[in-house]
Amino acid sequence: MAENILEINNLTVTYGQFKIITEVSFKVKPKEIVCIAGESGCGKSTLIKAVLGLKQLGAQIEEGSVILDGRDITRLGVEERRQILGTEIGYVPQNTRGSFNNIRSYEVQYKETMLAHGLPFVKADAIDVFKKLNFPDADTILEYQPWEMSGGMNQRMAIGLAVLQKPKLMLADEATSVLDVTSQKEVIEELSKLRDELGWSILFITHNLGVASHIADKLGVMYAGRMVEYGAIRKVLDHPIHPYTRALLAAIPGKDRKLPQGLEGRPPLDGAEWTGCNFVPRCRFACEACKTKKYQLIEVEPDHFASCSEGME
Amino acid sequence: MAESKKIDKSKLSKKQLKKLRLKRKTYILGGIVALLLIASLIAPMLTPWDPYATDPLNMRAAPSAEHIFGTDYLGRDVFSRVLSGARTSIFATLVLVIISFVIGSAIGIICGYYGGFVDNILMRITDILLSLPQLVLAVAVAGMMGGSLTNALIAIGITSWTSYARLARSHTMRIKQLPYIDSVRMTGSGDLNILLRHVFPNLIGSMLVNATLEIGTTMLSIAGLSFLGLGVAPPAAEWGSMVSEGRAYLQLAPWTVFAPAASILVAVMIFNYFGECVCDLANMNEV
Amino acid sequence: MSSAPLLEVRDVAKHYGRGKKRHEVLTDLNISLNEGEVLGIIGESGCGKSVLLNLISCLEPVSAGQLFFKGEEYTGKKPKDVCRWFQVIFQDSEAAFDPKMTIRQSMHENLRLLSGDSKDADAKIEAMIEIMGLNPALADRYPRQLSGGQVQRMSIARSLVTEPNLILCDEMTSALDVSAQAMILQYLYKLRQKRGLTMIFVSHDMALCSTFCDRMAIMKDGKIVEIGTPEQIMDHPQHEYTKLLLDAVLYVK
C-alpha cells in the first residue's frame, strides 16, 4: 500500500468557461478521515466527482492529478473507471433514497451490485458486517425493501454495501445532511468505527463544521474553488486563521444559545479565476492589498495551512 | 449560469454545444414546417392547373414540363391536386390535434386535481378506449357515420384525446402536491385560478411536445381513413383518397400513386422529426 | 379578547385511513401560543410535525379536537377563511414559488388575493425584500435563478408582506447551508424586535431552536412529550426522548 491512499495534486477543474476548482492539493492517508467543508457552490462536490470520474458532468480536469493508492486515475477510460468504482472507491451519496431501488429487497440489490463488480456475494458475510455495525435485526434486514426503512437506516445500508466491497477509499458527499439528528449521529459513529476497526480512509464532504468536528482527522475549508484553510482538525478548529473558516464556525448554533452569526452573500461563480483573494467581497477584514495578493497556502504552524494570515496574532 | 453575450464556441462544454446544435436543427425544421403550412394555406394561388378540371385528351400523361407530376385517369393535374390536398390533410390534422389537445388537457387536469369519483370514471373510459386498436375503432365509427371529412375527424378524435388526458393527469397529480400549490391555497385562491394560472402553465410544455409528436400519427390516420373511402370523398383532393383512386392504374400511371404517397411520407417525417427535436430540446432544458 | 391566546390547539388528533389501515398520526395534541411568541416544535421525520402545521392552516381537516384563533373556534374552515391569519413557509423554498412566475409576480398575486388593493404593492414588496436583506432588483428573477438562501428569504418576505398574525415554518432552514441558515435567523430576529412576530418554528435541530425560540416542544410519534423554555429543555431535560435528542446534537467540539 502506498503512503497515501488518495493524493490530489494541484487539481484544476473547469466547466464550460468557468473554473470550479483551482489548484487544490491534499492527501488522504490510510486510516484517516479528511473532511472538506464549505458552502454550496464552493466546489466541494465537484472535488468528489473528480475522484469518481467527471464524464457525465460536462466538467473537465484541466490540470493536476488524482492518485489513488499510487495509481494515477486522473484520465481513466470509462471501462477502467467502472472497474475501480465500488471495489477501490466506495461512495455514499447524499440522497440514499435514490441509490436503492425502492421496491426490490436489499438482498437482490446487494447481490446485483456485488456481481456487477465481479465480487462474490455471501449472505453470511453481509450479516456479519451488519452485526459488526450494530444494525437492528441484522439477520433479517436483507429481506426488507428500502421503502420500509427510514432514511437513516437506508443510509446505513448503503454504507453496509460499501463495506462489503472493501474499497480502499470511501467518499461521502453530504452523507448525513438529509438525516434526522439521531440517525445523523448513528451514521457518523458508524463511519468512525469503520475507520477504527477496518482501517478505512474516508473523504467526507459537508457544509456543517459541527459534523466535521465529530468525525474528521484533517479538515479542509474550501471557498469558491480554492482551499483556504487546511490542517489537523484540532488545530483548525481551535485556532481558525482564515476569516471564512471563522465565519463558518460562527454560523453554527452553539451551546451558549446565542444567535448564530450568518455570512451575507454567496461565493462568486468565477471566484476561482480571481487573482486576488476571492473572499474579499464578504470579508470584514479585507483591505486593498487583499485584492491583488496572489493566492497561496501558507504554513502557519506545523500541519496547519491557510491562505490568509488575518487570524494570526 | 450567467451567459456572456458573445458565445465563444471553443469554450463551450460538449453539452452546451450539443444543445446549440439541437436548437439550430429545431429552428430549421420549424421553418420547414411553417413553410409547409403557408404553402398549404395559399395552395389555390400556387396551383398551375385547376385541380378539379378534367382533360380527356391528356389522361394518364407521364410527368412532363407541363404537368410535373403527370395527370391522373381523368386528366387532372396531379401536382395541383397534391398541393390542394395538402390543405385538407395538414389542416384537418392540425384541427384534430388542437381539439383533442384542449379537450384532453382539460379532462386530464380536472381528473388529476380533484381525483375521486370523476377521476375513476373518466380514467376507466380512457382505459377502455386505449385497449381498442385506434384505427380499427376509427374505421368502425367512420363506417357507421358515413364517409366525410368531419366524420373521419370525429372517428379519430374519439380515441386521440386519451393520450393528452393521461399525460395532463399525471403531471397535475405531481404538481398539485408541490408546496407552491399549498402556498397559493393559503392565499385563499379559488381552484380555477390555481388550475389556470399555476397548474396549466407548468405542464403545457410537455403537453405541446406530445402534441407535436402526435401530428404525424394523426396525419397517417386521416390519410388511412380516406384511403379506405371513409374520409374525404372524391372528387375532393386528399392524399389518402388520391392514393386510393390511383391504385387501380398503378401499372399504367404509377405517378398518380407515388406523388401523394411521397407527400404523406415526407410530411409525416418532417412533423415527426420536428416533434422529436422539440422533445429533446425540452428534455435538455429540464436537466 | 386580549386574554385569549392567539392560537389554541385543543385535543387535536389526526388519523389517515379507515378500519385496519387506520393510522394515527397525531393524538391528543394541546398547544397554546400567545401573540409575539415563537414556539419551536422539534421532532424527527415522521413524528407528525408537518401534519400539525397543515391542520392549523386548514390545508387538511382535523379528525378530532378543536382549533381556536383569538378565542374563536375555527375548526373545519377552509384555507380561504384562515389565509389572512396564517402563512406557511416550506422547507423546499424553490418549490414554494411557481416556477413560471417571477418572485414579484408571485408576491403580487399573494397581495392581490389577500389584501385586495394593489396600489402600493410594489413599494410594499420592495420594502419587505429590503428588510430581509436582499436587493429588490432580485424580485424580477425566477426562483431557480436565486440561491437557496435567497429564495427562502424571498418566501419569508412573501409571507410577511400580507401581514399575517402567525407564521408557520416547516423545516424552514434545513435545506440550507449553515451560513445561509444563520443569515435567515438574524433577519427574523431583527424583524421580531422591530415589529413583533408570532411563529411556530418546526425543525429537527434542537440547537438551532434553542437560540431563537421562546418555548420548545418535543414531539414524538404524534405526541408532545415535553414542552418548556430553552433553558428547561436544554439544561434540564425530563423526558428520555429529549435526552436522546440532546445527546445527538453535534456541537462543534
Structural account:
The complex is a heterotrimer of chains A (313), B (287) and C (253). With 313 residues, chain A is an alpha/beta fold. Chain A has two domains: 6-88 and 168-177 and 196-306, P-loop containing nucleotide triphosphate hydrolases (Rossmann fold, 3-Layer(aba) Sandwich); 96-166, no CATH class. Chain A is built from ten helices and twelve strands. In chain A, helix 6 links the parallel strand 7 and strand 8. Chain A is globular, with a radius of gyration of 20 Å. The model of chain B is unreliable at 1-6 (pLDDT under 50). Chain C has a domain at 1-85 and 202-253: Rossmann fold (3-Layer(aba) Sandwich). In chain C, a hairpin with a 2-residue loop joins strand 4 and strand 5 (72-73). The mean pLDDT of chain C is 87. The interface between A and C is large, with 38 and 38 residues.
Topology:
The complex is a heterotrimer of chains A (313), B (287) and C (253).
Chain A (H helix, E strand, L loop, with lengths): L5 E10 L2 E11 L4 E5 L6 H9 L6 E10 L2 E2 L5 H7 L4 E4 L13 H11 L6 H10 L18 H14 L4 E5 L7 H18 L2 E6 L2 H7 L2 E6 L2 E7 H6 L4 H8 L37 H5 L5 E4 L2 E3 L7
Parallel strand pairs in A: 3-8, 3-9, 6-7, 7-8
Antiparallel strand pairs in A: 1-2, 1-4, 4-5, 9-10, 10-12, 11-12
Helix pairs in contact in A: 4-5, 5-6
Chain B lengths: L13 H28 L1 H4 L31 H37 L1 H16 L2 H12 L3 H28 L2 H7 L5 H37 L11 H8 L8 H32 L1
Chain C lengths: L6 E10 L6 E11 L4 E5 L6 H8 L7 E6 L2 E2 L5 H4 L3 E4 L13 H13 L5 H11 L16 H14 L4 E5 L7 H18 L3 E5 L2 H7 L2 E6 L2 E6 L1 H6 L4 H9 L5
Parallel strand pairs in C: 3-8, 3-9, 6-7, 7-8
Antiparallel strand pairs in C: 1-2, 1-4, 4-5, 9-10
